[in-house]
């Protein structure tokens, strides 16, 4: 473990849960260090990493970067995030996926938005990037939906410290990130959307991120982020408008459509409390285990 802590408490603690992704992690950490708000600490929590993650963190020579490697792999970000929360000293907590990148204004604008709106949690706009290009933008829930019904990537989120911990994957009937936001919403915490693009998300399944043979897109996007971030923001939003105009009525392949419908059925059963039924609960657990195996395969883990 590496750790160099200053005496004063930072404004933000950034938690980066990671597993054997040293190449992309380097650029993720660069995007943190490039923030206009510099009063932060970073906890990189390895989920029993066996690659060069520790060397990447130490290689920056920045005392704000700390690394802790779990002794046992948990298979999701939930328990590493909890380890980060236990070590956090910041007034606010932010998360950043080990494949994702922040625009330079991410932390400063979210802290300002949270304080101005007197919210408990605030999230930014996020672009979803796949090898074939931009696939969508995450924003606020659509009209009539609450935050207990949507998925917001954790890389978009900043919240007050001491609100909630993360539920382990085997204990959640939905994704751990969906479960976290759902519990935050249902417990009455105030959630606010900050309408500016500040996150680039590279879904691990779309990039087979854990397969060392696949190309890593973070390097080129980092160059654009560091050289001309406003131009990159404008380009992505322009492309988003074009994608929206072309995909108002998308057609999905049958396997993808079935997975999509099953995911929404699982959410609905969970929200209605039906998921705990003695007959339904085992079926949902079996479906979720199959889903997790599928995700491991497309991410290059199996």
From TrEMBL:
Name this polypeptide is given: Glycosyltransferase 2-like domain-containing protein
Annotated Glycosyltransferase 2-like domain residues: 13-123
SUPFAM superfamilies: Nucleotide-diphospho-sugar transferases
Cross-referenced Pfam families: Glycos_transf_2
PANTHER family, alphabetized: GLYCOSYLTRANSFERASE, GLYCOSYLTRANSFERASE 2-LIKE DOMAIN-CONTAINING PROTEIN
Signal sequence coordinates: none
Superkingdom of this protein's organism: Bacteria
